[in-house]
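Hi there,

I know you've been waiting on this one. I reran it after we fixed the sequence typo, so this is the corrected version. Both the input and the resulting structure follow.
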Amino acid sequence: MQVDPRGQRFAAALTTLVLAAALAFAQPWILGFQAVVFAIGLLAGVRNSPYALLFSAVVRPRSGPPSATEDARPPRFAQGVGLAFAAVGLIGYLVGPDWLGAAATALALTAAFLNAAFGFCAGCEMYLLGRRLTAAGKTA
């Protein structure tokens, strides 16, 4: 399945805003909201995540079809990575220590910002590296 890379950057921009708010206000419910968004993207696919649906309904009709598409598997994997960081952040905020919540949220925020601002998806790159290492292991 292919996805519009503009939609992925749009989702990363919204994720950046949500995670920045979660970090600035140290509010686990904000981080929990983002964790649910990550879980939907992982389980239902990135095309069915709330941010992708918003992009499809509001932004894409005004910007036209994409000039290129990309494989949905790397961004879907990235959603799982984001979910893992959000889960660790929630544990830190809800159970302690608070610094763990802040650190995990800050790392997820950094990754989302890199994707939104520069188109660099750290989780996608992790997926691709894993695929290359798996393929190299099969030939050795």
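Quick highlight: The chain has a mean pLDDT of 96.

Best,
R. S.
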